[in-house]
Automatic annotation (TrEMBL):
HAMAP family reported for this sequence: GreA_GreB (MF_00105)
Signal peptide coordinates: none
Sequence similarity: Belongs to the GreA/GreB family.
Organism: Streptococcus oricebi
Organism phylogeny: Bacteria, Bacillati, Bacillota, Bacilli, Lactobacillales
Chain segments annotated as coiled-coil in the UniProt record: none
Transcription elongation factor GreA/GreB N-terminal domain segment(s): 7-76
InterPro entries reported in the protein's UniProt record: GreA/GreB_C_sf, TF_GreA/GreB_CS, Tscrpt_elong_fac_GreA, Tscrpt_elong_fac_GreA/B, Tscrpt_elong_fac_GreA/B_C, Tscrpt_elong_fac_GreA/B_fam, Tscrpt_elong_fac_GreA/B_N, Tscrpt_elong_fac_GreA/B_N_sf
Gene that encodes the chain: greA
Stated name of the protein: Transcription elongation factor GreA
């Protein structure tokens, strides 16, 4: 079975590689050291420090595995390869909900780079799915769990 690919910009891939390096070279050794110290406390059956360190080790190893998979199956998207006014990964989109006056600005990224608080929405999110492939002036219907709404694409530009 073919593995899932992870569309992303080169910048997103580089960010994942930095995160992976941090986990492998800093976090993993820190956790191993905590486990060693906790082991020295004796009886492991009632050692909460040991249990917490083992839980953290499992979490860190899971993150490492996830990042390695995303990096291995990264599909670098070149936003220059699509029309200047077409929404794609690596583009910044300004939208306005139909009937509203406020505008919203989103950066379309691959799922690995999503960060809602920074205005970075995944191509797999409801907003991303609705906007990808549309152009300036188009209307898009965004489907959410609580209903749908229509937005107009006001501006599309390459993310700096």
């Amino acid at each position: 079975m073919a593995e899932k690919t992870y569309p992303m910009t080169i910048e997103e891939k580089e960010k994942l590689e930095r995160e992976l390096e941090e986990l492998k070279l800093v976090r993993r050794p820190e956790v191993v050291e905590r486990i060693k110290i906790a082991r020295s406390y004796g009886d492991l059956s009632e050692n909460s420090e040991y249990e917490a360190a083992k839980d953290e080790q499992a979490f860190v190893e899971g993150q490492i595995s996830s990042l390695e998979t995303k990096i291995r199956y990264a599909e670098i998207v070149d936003s220059d390869a699509v029309a200047k006014d077409e929404v794609a990964i690596g583009k910044t989109v300004t939208i306005q909900e139909v009937g509203e006056s406020d505008t919203e600005v989103y950066i379309i990224v691959g799922s690995a780079g999503a960060d809602a608080f920074a205005g970075k929405v995944s191509n797999e999110s409801p907003i991303g799915q609705a906007l990808i492939g549309k152009k300036t002036g188009d209307l898009a219907t965004i489907e959410t769990p609580v209903g749908s709404y229509e937005v107009k694409i006001l501006k599309v530009e390459k993310t700096a």
